[in-house]
Design a protein that fits this description.
single chain; alpha/beta; TIM Barrel; 2 domains; 19 strands; GH; hydrolase; glycosidase
Length: 531
Amino acid sequence: MKTTYTLMIFSVILLKATIVLSQENRLAIIPEPNYMELKEGVFEVKHNLKMNSSVEFQEIIDTTDYVKDVLEEVFKVSITREAKSSSDIIITRDHTLAEEAYVIDIRPDRIHIKVKNTTGFFYATQTLRQILFQSRVFKGSKTIPICYIKDEPRFSYRALMLDPARHFLPFEDIKKFIRAMSFYKFNKLHLHLTDDQGWRMEIKKYPELTSVGAWRDETEGDGVKHGGFYSQSQMKELVRYAKAYHIDIIPEIDMPGHSMSVLAAYPQLACFLDDFKVRTTPGVDKNLLCAGNDKVPGFYDDIIREVTTIFPYNKIHIGGDEAPTDNWEQCLKCQQKIKREGLKDEHGLMSAFFNKMNQILKKYNRQPMLWYEENVTSYPEGSTVFLWRKGTAERVVKATGEQGLKLICAPGEYAYLDYPESAAEKRYTFDWMQTLPLHQVYDFDPGYGLSAEDQRHIIGIEGCVWGERVYNINRAFYMTYPRALALAEAGWTATMNKSWERFSCKLQSNLVFLLNEGINFRVPFELFNED
């Protein structure tokens, strides 16, 4: 019965989408291209297509197999390469385009793709994939509408975050998540690899981080031991895999708070020695790394050195949030450091801690990313910080601009994808979580309506899938989609080109596409009651 009802819903949205999109002369592409013109006529996909990959730069030639594979997969045709300008598919380089930009010019006799580099070519292919899928599935034809698309992203940083620290996610499942997010032009995967509830990556110099820190006795009283971690060879493979989809992986090593998994393995790094355990419940712990302990910087120097051999991206997230300073206030070493360095208080000590970590990162040609906290005195020069706390956007955007910090917007009221999407789903989460419906995510403007100058330091967006109640990858997908599709338009599409009505109509083909790819999602039933 449920399956039948779902199919009925898809039928309704299909009819609605067909009417609205035809009236607007649009294709159901997500994220919405920043310029698109649909014309009369079609390009007929013949049984054998010729593709000209005789372009001026070798790396494009090496990646044209992707568009070849997409066309052959979707339309069940064969494609051969040739070095002729009269080919059915022509790929050329255009130096005037932006780094991630692309042009698709579909005419009755050929498809012409123009890009500056391989990333632009990849995004052109993802757009073409959506067009092809819609033509085959919804029209039952091997034709492509005549159209002209010129497109580039609004922001350079477009991320999703997974949290395997709270609930370990198998290696192959993260690969599947990478593939899914690449369809919608996300280009960063932020992996929250360490927290109170688990340490998830092998560090060879400190084996107890995984032999002890990767395992907890139970989860919220269930009595079942939970854990797991990724080897360094697995992480290197994951980086290579993500790179093929033009996604950078950003590791997060959380400090000085959210560190019970560290202290369980190395208790001497705390302010006060104790028999620490990996935390079994959600929440914020008052046991921090000791900011006055001279062994802590060396410990993280060793960790960062190993991390940088795995992750080539030039930034490492070092956490920095939810770190209550109660123990620092009572710790003799911390108080002596405050006095010795002329710091005002424990918040100044927090800034000094971040500065020390920044010095270590600089040694390895890396820059810090941190969750922005308003009570931290200052952040290191060159930091990229994240807006995340609900209700703080106006203050944080203004303060980070004045401080010269780069800002990524991941506010809880728009981008926390672990929040329930409807009131009925609140029973599966926490009482303090607000509902975050699809239309609210779509309303998100990372520039907050500010002038170009006042939002110049905002470099992108991130959707966070925190893992306290995300037990496996199917749950992660369910919480992420289709809200990530709305977030994709916030990161890619200029505000003037966005339309909730158009987006809600475009969902139908994209949900069927996700279904076809074996990606779990929440069916947005509430959309069909809007009329």
